[in-house]
Structures are given as C-alpha cells and as structure tokens.
Amino acid sequence: MPPRRPRRSKEATAPPPKPGGSPIPLDNDELKRIILDTFGETDVLHSRTVRVGGERGLRVLAIYDCSLFNAAEAAKTVFEPLIAYGDRPITRTNAIEVLKERVLTNAVIDFADTIEGVIEKILSGRVVLHPEGSRQALVCDVSQTPMRSVEEPETEGIARGPREGFVEQIEANLALLRRRLRTPHLRTESFTVGKYTQTRVVLTYIEGVASETVVAEARSRLERIGVNIDGLLVSETVVELIEDHPFSLFPTINTTERPERVAAALLEGRFAIFVEGTPFALFAPTYFAEFFTSSADHTERSITTLMLRTVRLLSLFITLFLPSIYVALVSFHHEAIPTILLLSIALGREGVPFPPAGEAFLMEGAFEVLREAGLRLPKTLSNAVSIVGVLVIGQAAVAAKVISPIMIIIVGLTAVASFTTPNFGTANVLRFLRFPILFLTALFGAIGMLISFILLVTHLVSLRSFGVPYMAPLAPFRYNEIKKGLWRRPVWDRGPRPATLFAQDTDRQEGGLMPRPPREGEDGGKG
Amino acid sequence: MMPASGQRRLLCTLLLAAFVATGCWDRVSVDEVVIVLTLGLDAGSEPDTFKVTLEMVNPGGSTSTETGEVGSLPSAVIISREGRTVLEAIQAIQRSVDRTIFLGQLQIVLYGEELARQGIAGTLDHLQRHGQFRRTMNIGVARESAESVMRSLSETFITLGLSLDALTIQAQRTGFVATLFGDFIQYLVEPGSGAVLPVFDSNEADGSLTVVGTAAFHADRLVGIFNTEESTGVALALGVSGPGLVLVGEADWEGEQVLASFGLRRIRSKVDVRLEDGEPKAAIEVRFEGVLAEQIGGGNFTTERDWSILESMQEQAVVNAIRAAVEKAQEWKVDVFRIGSRLEQRFPHAWKQLEENWRDTFAEMEIEVRVESHLLETGLIKEPLFRKGRDG
Amino acid sequence: MEKAKISTGGLISILWASHILGTIFPIAGMAAIAKSSAWVSSLIAAALGLLVVWVWLAARPADHQTFMADWLCRICGPFFGVAVNVLYLLFFLVMCGITMRHIMELVSTAVLPKTPNVVILVLFAVPGGIAARLGIEVITRSAQVYIGFSLISFLILVVGISPYIHLENLLPVLNEGLRPPLVGAVPSVASLSLTGLGIWVAPYLDDRRSMERAVLTATAIAGLAVVVLTVIAQGLFSYRGMDEMLIPAISVARSVRLGRILERLDAMMLGAWLLVAFLGKTYLIYLAANQIAWLGRTRHYRPFTFPVTVIAATMAMVLIRSDAELAEWVNTGSFAGYVLAHTFVVPLLLIGVGYFHRRRARTGGAGPGKEGERVP
C-alpha cells in the first residue's frame, strides 16, 4: 500500500477518486462480498440493506462495525431518515446527492471512492452507505468509542489555573485546543501512521506564526514514518521516530497533558502533534530550559516564578552533582570542608566498611530500586515499600554502621531535588545521569566532576530540536529571551517571540501594556 | 553519550577500563586520615634540627566506652619527633600513626619561643611550598616551647587547634595582633622586615589557654615580646584590632582620680612618612570612635562642656599605648609598624640609601603619634552613683 | 570549512577563554622584571595587546568570506602560502600543547598532586577532541555556558579578596623608569595577541564589522582581566610575594576569605578557570585540525581532530620537562618571541606584501588575484 498523502481539507465536497485502490463495484452484493471477504471471520461487522424510494426504489447497503458505533445515533440519523424517505423518487444517478442533501440527518458526512477507503471508514466506526449503481459510498460518522471524561492531569497538576487535561480521543483533544485558539489560522493536518493500527496523528500549528521550514520539516518527518511501521500506540513512539538526536539521553521534543500549554506553545510559533490514543501532546522545537518550566509558572507572580525557577535550577544541580560533591569532598578534598563538619563526617564514617564512593553507589542504587518498586505497586502497597525503605535504609543501615548518617542526608536531598523537575522524563534522565558523574568523581574527585560537566555541556550544546539550538537562550546567548523564557518577566514586558524559534511573525503584542494610572491631561478611560 | 560506532565504543571501554584498573591516586577516604589541627615547631635537641609536634584528631578513635559504643567526642593525640627538616620530622611522626597525616585542615602553626629566638627561616620553606598548607592559617608563638604548651593544654582542650583558632579572633578584639601565615611571611620579606605574632601560653593558675603578649620579629628572629599594653599599641598603630577593644583612660578632675573604660570602634590608622633633609620622619595617625562604657569617679561629663574631657581621656589612652609600643620597638630595633615599606613606596630612591642601616635609623628616628577621636555614646546613665572619696 | 554560523558574543567568549591561562601565568614574570610597577606593566600589556591585535585585523582577508589559509596563499603565492600555513599549523599545535601543559600543571599542583600527569592530560584531552570534532558552533555555545561560571567565580574571587588588598603595595610607581614595565609586559602582550586567532573563523560571522568588534572586545576584556588579576595579586602579596610564587593565580585563589565555608573553595574556583582553559585548548585543536584539512585539500576536518589532540598532548609532555621550566619559559624566556613572531611579525609582513602587490597592480604589474580591489 503506498503511503497516504496527508488529508489537507475536511470539507466534504466529492473529491476526485484517489489514484490507486480498487474502485467500488456498482453492485451492492458485490461490495458486500468483497468487504466480508476482506474481514473474514468476524462477528462485529454488520450489514443491512435498505430500500429507499418505495418498493421499487433504490437498494442502499449499509455496512458498519457494531463494536465501534453508537447504535442509537445510527438509528436516528441514518436508518430512520432512510426509511422515512418513503416513496419519493430517487435514481441511481442522483442517489448520492439526494441522500446527502435531503435524507441523511447525520452531521458529518464523507465519501469513500475505493474499497480501501470503505474499509478504513468501517474501521474508524463509521456507517458506510452504498447506493446501488454508484461508484461512490457515503460515510456517516456515528462512531462511539469508550471515552474517559476530561480530567485534571495527574503528572502536571497545578494549584491555580485550568484543570483540564487531554484524553485519549484525538477529537476531544483537538476540541480542547480549538476552544483556546479560535482562529482559522490554526491548522490541523492529519496523518495516518501504522500499517495495522492506522493511528491518526495530527500536526497543528498556527499559520503565519510558526516557521514554515520548521513545520515542513515536521511534516516530512511524520510522512517518513507513514505506514512503514506496523503500529503506533503511544506518542513516545512518534518522538523516537522523528527526534533530531536518537542517541541522546535528552528529549528534544516536549510533551504535555495540558491544553493551555500546547496553546501557549503554538502561540510562540511552535507546532504540536497529537497522537490518537495518547493523552499527551508533543510540541517542538523546544529548549532544555523548557523542561524546567511548568504551566503553574504562568499563574504565579513574576517574581515568585523567578524564585521557583531558581529553586528548580538549584535542584537540577543537586540532583546531578550532590552525591558527587560528597564523594569528592570526603575522599579527595578534605581541606574544603569546614573543620567541625569534617570531624562530624569522619565520626559518622568511623567503622563504615565501604569507601564513600561505594557507599554512594549503594545508597543511590537502593533509592532507585525503592522508587521503582513504589511506582509499580498499587498505591495501597507502595506505602509498605516506603516503610521498608525508611526502616531498612534509613535506620537499620546507619545503626548497623553499614552506611554513614551523612550519606542518608545526601541521598534524601538528591531524591527530593530530583522530584522538582516538572517534566517526568527529564527527571528520570537526570537521575540516571548522576551515576556516571559519580563514577568519574570516584576516580578523580572534583576534576572528574568537572570533566563530566564538560562532557554534559558539550553534549547539550551540540543538540538541536528541529534546527533550534537546545541550550538556547543561554547558548547562543540572547538576553531578551532569557528575560522572557527563563526569568518570565510580567506579560507586559515579554517582548517579541523568541528569535531562536524562527517564528514568522515576531510581534507578539503592542508595547505599553503595563497597567498604570492615566497621566495628567490624558483621558482617564473608563475608570 | 556520543553516537558511537562499535570500534569507538570498544576504545572508550578500554580507556575506561585502563582508568579503573590503575585506580585513583589521590583518593584517601576521610576515615583513613588523621586530621592535624595544630603544628608545633621547636628547636631540636641537636643543633640545626627541628622538633615537630602535631596535634592530631582521630575522630571517634579511641574513646570507646564500656557500652561498646564509640564515643561521640573526637580524641586528640600529641606526638613530637625530631628531624633535620620539617618534613623529615613529620615523616617520623607518620611512623607512629596508623593513618595518613593530613595537614589541609591545619588551624595554627605554633613556634616555640626558643626556636623563634634562634630563627625560623628553616621551617618556612616547607610551609610555603607544600600545597596542603594555606596562606590563611593562623600562626603564633608559644611561650618557651610549643610542645610543652600543647601538651599542658591538651588535657583541657580536646581540639586545641580549633580553640587556638577561635582565641586568635578574641585576641584581636582585646588588643592583640593576629597575623595570618601569608601576611606574616610577606611582612618578613618587605623592607623593614618587621612582623608581629600573638604569644600563647597556658595560664599557670587555672590551666587556661591565654594570649600573653605579642612577639616582634625581625626577619626570621623573635626579638622581643610586647606586654599587653604595648600589644594594644601595636594593634592600634597597625589598625588591625577588631571592634570591641576596650581601653581604660585616666584623668585628674577636681583633684580626683577618674577612671573610664572606652569601647573603641571604627579604628582606622595609617603610617605617614616624610623626608626632612634626607632624614626619615614618621607619624602614626589613628582615628577612631569611642563609646563610654564605664566610669569610676568624677561627675557628669555628658555635657557639652565636659565632653572634651572624655574625648581627651580616650585619646590619651590610645596615645599612651602606642607610645609604649613605639618605645619598645625602637629599643629592640624592630620596625613592626612597617615604616620601611612606606618609605620604599613613597621615596624609593631615598630608601636605597636608608636600607642598609635601617634598624639603627629606625631606632633613632622621630615617630609622632597623632590621634583623633569622637565620643559617640555614653550609655544609659549620666554619672556614677557614688563619687570616689566622698559620701562613699 | 563547515556549515556554521556564530555570533559576535560567541566569538568573544571563545577568544577570551582561549586566552585566560595566558593571563594567569605570566604575571609572576611581570613582578620579577617590573618590580612594584608590575601593575603598570599589566596596563601597558593591555594597551599593546590591543595594538598588536589591530595589526592582525589590518592583515585579515579583504573579503569576508575568505578563509585565512586561502588568503595566506593568495598573498604569498602558492609555495610560500603553503609554507606559512604549515608554520601556523605547527604554531597551533605548540600553543595547544602549551595550553594542555598549563591545565596539567594547574591540576597537578593544586588539585590532584599524586595523580600521574599523563592521566590528567588524557582526562582533559578526550573531551577536548570530542568538542572540537563537533565543530565551531558547539565550541562557541559551550563557551557561552562556561563564561557564566568563569565570571561568577571571578566575581567571588574579587569580592572575597578585595578587603585584603593593600593598595599601598602598588607603590612606588615607575621608580626605575619605563623600561622594566615595558619589558615585563612582553609575555602578556604575546598571550593577549593570541585573541587575533579569531580571524581564522571570521567567515562564520555575519560580517566584517562584527569580526572587528569581537576581536577587539575580546582583547580588551582579556586585557582587563590581566590588569585586575595583577592588581589583586600585587595588592595582596606585594611584588616580592608575587615574584616568589610559581603560579600567583593559585595563591590568589587560595587567599579568598569569604567566611568560614567559602574560603576553602579554591578547588571550585580553579574549576571555573579550568573550564575556560579547556575551551581555549579545544579551539586550538579545532584550528589545527582545520589547518590540516586545508593542507590536505579536503573539506572534512573532523577525522583530524583526534590525531591533532594526540599530537598536542604528546607535545605537552615532550616539549617541556617541568613546571618550573614552563613558568620560566613563559615568564621570561623565548615564549613571547615565539608567539609574537606568529601574531605580530607575520601579519606585518602580510600587510607589507599586500601593499607591494597593490602598488604593482597599480603600475600595471599582475597582482595576485583580485587584490587591487582591497579597501583599506
């Protein structure tokens, strides 16, 4: 099967038959036979023939998958009108027009021109109507799939702000997005990905804002996957197939569960990708710093946000380097510790059989094990894990002189700090990264730490996300974007769209939006 | 982290393996070292040898109690050994300590008075050269010998080095001069070559650790020890005394002896030099602000008229202290005020001639003391409750 | 010879970085020669450094898109052009080796005394090779990341030390005339002039003007760093103290007194400096690899980065035997002459030859290529 071209328009005017694909036979029974043959043994596929236009009227074949459709709606919007049409005239030649324009009350009507098209429609839960003697089939959308209601996202909870999160249905997600961006410039391009799953993937962006080259690049990468893969079940699969640096530890595509976050990203000139069946939207291009921002930042005061982000940055360093700093200080650079602290550390280390580095590996490893266990277990059981963790690792290990007390503090701090990273995936990467850093530090002390920092920075600055430098706006350094992106100045001071995103339209807002009392001699306005 | 081909990955693995296999040379865990807090230096029993005394803290080492629990207090060990060089002696000490001697946390270097009088040149090189010694560590002189002072105090003070370090701060607030190691060696090589160090001793009566004076060094030799008042003078002249220094001023008022304690703040001083007909002249200028903290005898001086009595009392106290210091310094021919340096900075050509006989010139030169002060506060009351000699 | 684009700020960061070790090593030599006028010497060095770099700028290609290697060929003719390029290749390699040696000495003196030097060398060489291989953009961007750390550490240094600086130590000024400070400034001028190497990557910048701005600003900043560091060191230790030290910068870092906790963070302080020194080394590896690529008439410099790193590391071990020898060579020895030959004499010759060509073109002789069109 050749890769499908993206469907640019959803407007239902009879399109010319698609090249390729077998034509629909004129005969109802022939079509029914072909379809039934294709599906083979299945008990969910139903067909029904209705005669429209009196006893000698036109035979219309309806085929549908009864596991996917809403029977009540199908009865009301498809079968009832068909039967109620009565004896009024209908011919083979005008059947399609008459059915579409005067009979069917269903809101979304589409056409299928090929057998393959018919099969695809059936699989997406539509009712396919084929009037006898027609080369086309009418498609009515009466699909209904089990759907979760829109709930508050769990991984990205915020205290103030919208409480809606994406769900598994792509239509619902697009609705959530469209409600926030009521503009005809919001483009949605559909792709079908996966040979067997035929998953719908939608690329959205705002025309005139997003860079055309970036969008074109995204489009071509999505098209490249097409049906060359057997299936697409989660959005991370798309990430892995279209990201810039498949070997990197760091994600170059951001994900979110929050519609307003996607809307904000689109407004900045990025694009977003929705994947059917995953309540996470992907958006790109993205920066490294962005993984440390949260939707909550925009509901706080500007200064508070600056403080929170400083805390997160500090936590980032703690997560990566704190165990290493401990090891470097305790086994290499004793002179850098204040004397009293050194004495108390040495006192705690007395009788501990492992070297500091071994101790650190042991404890950080134990923490990872506990965390993983707590995550996999049901909530009721994970309490048990934490109790065991506290008792075994916290108390017993220190009491038995297996671990020094300061190490417990270090592990605890590192763990807590790693939870401040708003992005779940990045937090995991960072937690993993502290092991290689720890290893180098165990060998060379502070110099090992320095080398690992150099390697980390070299890697980070070499990354790009859809052509945008990953470490922007720090490197390349752009003060204006640091002001807006990292610092989050108040909205009236945020200036143009980030230049690093290559947005077409860089003007974001008019100047002089800062609220202020009217000056003397000026019209006081409504107040 | 980089996308790597199989070969490159193999190379990386080999390199890593090489690193791991060869080990980590500088790694020594904190529980494998013994932390030296005090380093004492004395003259050895043979001529031209040194005796090094180390106060080493063995955290939680030997104070195990009957319950089998390791004690929560670190214990200090004091060991002395002799050697021709400092490092030789330290190595000799290492032979009787089961852990690596670590000098990076050294709090203070104590010179025995005897060695200091003979000259400390031989000991300085190692302290400067070895990376573990810091320029910011304290340095002091112990009365008679460092070893005996350290031993006599180690009973009372578990971590003597830390106590000495803290005491130097207190010493600075009470009219003594504390000099950091880096500054000390710098002063020794400067023109004039005078430097001062605090002198520590254990108090015979109560065994407490005490600062008893200030040692004046010329080049690498201790020449004399200033007593308490003179030390205060040196500290004031050098402008190194911390806030909170208390001086007692005297005055005669209506035939009555008045004593008053002043707290000194914001002490700023400078040494001004000039040449008159090729003769160097120096003036020590001190400015400070005082607070009347105590008054015995006398009446209400907190009036506009009598304010000057208090001010002249505090100024006189400062002048007396500095004068005493200057007299002693000139007697010992030690330029502790670093007048030589100032001369070199201001009059480099004249200094070249003066340099040769500087000690004698210094001993004879005229050193003026100028003091300017303000009395800021007088506390909560106006005058003493009782006046001396009257209805007492 | 890659597809890249760098910003003025980025180039400033690398150039300043590639020079930082040059600033912290030769100040001991200044004190030895200029005595108490060492700080004057540093001022002179900053000024002369700008002058030398200005000569560099005058000698740069007429056309913004031309690479320096091609330009040398065009000016000196095919044979001498290649010869000069080989000369510069060797220069880059030697400078890279020296920078590596500097890093090694700093680390082994101040941080890891017992670790074998080779290990330290390899430790810093490998990431250097990797970064150089990734190209000029990556080097620039890492420079922009590191420069923040370096600036913060420099600020901590200045803040932590300033209360202990005695400005009287800066006296007497020029008591022995202008000659000693001038002589003492030469090693610093030499290392400052290295910022002129920025013109090797000029075509990656937007235009000629931003190139000028970047190189001059970088030199000015580096000069300022030399001055600040010299003033600090002299104010702290007086010139006698500076003269005695092998590497005054380490002693400066070790003299920071910022409360009881921060005062012992000299290792961290050195860390920030090492980051920047590492960048300088990476930049030199990149230049050398590009030079080889040019000589081999290939557009791909990447395969050469690792060989270059190995060669430079070997040079770092072989050229100099001990830290004392390194310090002597840099502070008082022929180092300055060697560097200035490449950064001052050759550009002067280039200007001269270019002028000669232009004159010949005007009088009807055949100029090299389109030289006659060059606008001064």
Structure description:
The complex is a heterotrimer of chains A (527), B (392) and C (376). Chain A contains 16 helices and 12 strands. Chain A is an alpha+beta fold. Chain A has a 5-stranded antiparallel sheet with strand order 1-2-4-5-3, with helices on both faces. A 5-stranded antiparallel sheet of chain A has the order 6-7-9-10-8, sandwiched between helices. The longest helix of chain A has 30 residues, at 302-331. Chain B is built from 12 helices and 14 strands. In chain B, strands 1, 2, 3, 4, 5, 6, 7, 8, 9 and 10 form a 10-stranded mixed sheet that branches. In chain B, a hairpin with a 6-residue loop joins strand 1 (33-43) and strand 2. Chain B is globular and about 95 Å long. Chain C has a single domain, classed as Amino acid/polyamine transporter I. Chain C starts with 7 loop residues before the first helix and ends in a 14-residue tail after the last helix. In chain C, 59% of the residues are buried. At the A-B interface, helix 10, helix 14 and helix 15 of A face strand 1 of B.
